[in-house]
Amino acid sequence: MDTDAGIHPGEAIAGGRTALGIEFGSTRIKAVLIGPDHAPLAVGSHDWENQFVDRLWTYSLDAVWSGVQQSFSALADDVRRRHGVELSTVGALGVSAMMHGYLAFDADGALLTPFRTWRNTNTGRAAERLSAEFGVNIPHRWSVAHLYQAILDGEEHVGRLAHLTTLAGYVHWQLTGEKVLGIGDASGMFPIDTSTIDKATRGYDAPMLARFDQLASEAGVELTLAELLPAISVAGRPAGELTEAGATLLDPTGRLRPGVPLCPPEGDAGTGMVATNSVAPRTGNVSAGTSIFAMVVLEHELTQVHRELDLVTTPAGDPVAMVHCNNGASELNAWAGLFTEFARAVGADVGPSQVFHTLFAAALDGASDGGGMLAYNYLSGEPITDLEEGRPLFVRSPDSRLSLSTFMRTQLFSSLATLRIGMDVLQRAEGVRLDRMFAHGGLFKTEGVAQRFLAAAIDTPVSVGDVAAEGGAWGIAVLAAFAARRSPEQGLADYLDTAVFTGTSLQTAEPDPVDVAGFDAFMQRYVAALPVQRAAVDHVSPVQRGENG
């Protein structure tokens, strides 16, 4: 345990005995400052949203920097209000962001095409070809799939490509000048060679790199992919320092001083694993926000390739099976917004938190199998169910009873259904066993509801804890602290167990047999009715910009 753990928060902040984590999530940019005991001292955030431009999901780089500046400013205000000191330095810093996607730059550092996020599913041809060539599953959202699709489509910018990275890698590069990625985030760009015994020296799979260069050449593009990708580092290693220009990017007021050490930038999946202490074999976690995904640390390699499963790594380099679903809680949020609008229309003074709590609580009394109702939460395409575009859909049988409780249970089941499809492959086809599954994210804030339904969906005990309340921003702050404070021989799992999660309070929900049977029945109808969802994609066109205001 850190000898500074008992220091006064104001003194810790003034003395730089802190760590700052910044995470770029799908709907919020969040900054969390932690003290020597890893407890949050202050928080700042900024809401943002992706845009659907030219049939691709994107965020502008201007929004990246304006958003992080507002988050840092809010954090500094929180420090001043709660602790009476100015935030001018931190002891360590880390950056995390949504994984995968495509950020392509030329030799001068200019962006070649708008940021293509993980949410895009236009890379089907590339993903299928690369999966066949490499003998591993290459998902639609991986950076290499985006690159190869751009090559297949003959996009002009490919010939000027000098550097390819993720959002976390881009922000880290601008803050430090270092083109580096944590191994967990890098594993969502290109396959990692996990056969190397020393995890600290693991890199991209060399034979696959060479094969990709050949495929590009066959398509008329000469490149060396290894020269375009960021360097790889593992948790606990230093990854540069905050430059003067980087400090100004975070804090235009000039109060933040340069020289702060940074840990390797990571993806939100990796920081979620840290935030739930799920980095050891036979542990896993589910993160639910705009997307929903499960990360399960493996004891051994899988027996075969499954398109539903990605093979990535923990921030320490251990192999992980990832079930990633593009669609999580966004459609659920839309329904909650509708109910909020109705409540205010009839004169009820209610806030979003009360609406969510009321709706989620109602779901507990709903029919265990959804009572003849079905919902598909597909705002975007969903590769696990072979859908390139999304059309949110609610349908019910004529004899179903349209009650609030069953409607809400159906909506919550829908948020977990695609995840269940992938977890079935992992648990049933591959026989992977889990000692514990942790859950975090906005879906699990209402106590005992989504947690209970997830336990039923995967027939596994599900725990939630108070430490992960600040999510991935707290997770990357912990990784920054780990890089700054760990002993040379200490591994990440041991650091989390002995220095971070001691005395953590957890609430565990065991699978209820009635819920398990109900979810199984719901899934049978859900899978059987997928052609209805596909028909909706084929026959319901998205509203174009300018239509209906």
Automatic annotation (TrEMBL):
It comes from the Bacteria. GO terms for molecular function: kinase activity. SUPFAM superfamilies: Actin-like ATPase domain (SSF53067). Gene3D superfamilies: 3.30.420.40. Signal peptide: none annotated. Residues 285-484 form the Carbohydrate kinase FGGY C-terminal domain. Keywords: Carbohydrate metabolism, Kinase, Transferase, Xylose metabolism. Residues 19-240 form the Carbohydrate kinase FGGY N-terminal domain. It holds the Pfam family FGGY_C. InterPro entries: ATPase_NBD, FGGY_C, FGGY_Carb_Kinase, FGGY_N. Belongs to the FGGY kinase family. This is FGGY-family carbohydrate kinase. It comes from Blastococcus jejuensis.
